[in-house]
Amino acid sequence: MAGPMKTPFSEPIPSARPLPEPVLDEDHKSKYDILLKLVKSWKEIPSESGKGGPVTEDDIFWLTRECLLRYLRATKWNVVESEKRLLKTLSWRRDFGVDNITADSMSVENETGKQILLGYDNHARPCYYLFPKNQNTTASQSQAEHVVFMIERGIDLMGPGQETLMIVVDFNIDRRKIPSIGQSKLILDIIQNHYPERLGMGFVLNAPWAVTAFFKIMSPFMDPFTRNKLNFSGDLKSFVPREQLYKEFMGELDFQYDHNVYWPYLNKLCEERRTQRRERWIQAGKMYGERETYLKGDGPSVGQ
């Protein structure tokens, strides 16, 4: 008899399909074209830490068609604000060192399985679980880097037509393991400001009063998109196929976190996908505003 599963899923179940891409009207298309032209005119990326400099291939690769559209939607199609936010995020990515965070440097943070990417929901969103009860380090820059690293890996796991994550935070813990308010606010700010339109659904389960109070206090400062996607109760089996859902959440999946198995498997899978997407981008001419569907192997390049 087979034992518990110890590796992440590489694909959603066949019946899981991303929600249809929003249809752009003529005004939206015009604003996208304007923003794309502005982005192409950039010569340098500013930085407060001295890491600014000329626009790099990494920057251009990141500036996909869907990326620009996410920022436009997040600013209610305000081109000026979208450009500001895109520049701010690229500056933050350099200052924070997003592309320099490695699996090896984050390994100790995830030794206890406190954050896991496992399975896909009914709309083919990667499921990102956070278990504060498994906290094994103190509040630090490394903890924030860990969250960013896992979000980036969740993006790697997104298939064609998918742009969002399902995030589940299970606060089934004692008071000593509740994340600090400062750390929670930092992480919330990062997600809101630098990963706009990336939250498909969010569940905060078994939240103690301190966590509930924190979200109530923060609610006026949260963007409506993020706030409206958060749920403080819910039956996960209504949103995630049972065969890819933890037994703890009434699913059928017998999963056991084994760091020595899960961690290298996840990072090898994600690295392979990043490499494939980068190679496709290079083959198509290193285009600004490249289509993510093309990069993921489904559909033509924006230049075709």
TrEMBL record:
Cross-referenced InterPro entries: CRAL-TRIO_dom (IPR001251), CRAL-TRIO_dom_sf (IPR036865), CRAL/TRIO_N_dom (IPR011074), CRAL/TRIO_N_dom_sf (IPR036273), PI_Transfer_CRAL-TRIO (IPR052578)
Residue ranges annotated for the CRAL-TRIO domain, each copy included: 105-257
Disordered as annotated region, ranges: 1-24
One of the record's GO molecular function terms: phosphatidylinositol transfer activity
Taxonomic superkingdom: Eukaryota
Pfam families, A to Z: CRAL_TRIO, CRAL_TRIO_N
SUPFAM superfamilies: CRAL/TRIO domain, CRAL/TRIO N-terminal domain
PANTHER family in UniProt: GH16843P
Name recorded for this polypeptide: CRAL-TRIO domain-containing protein
Species per Swiss-Prot/TrEMBL record: Erysiphe pulchra
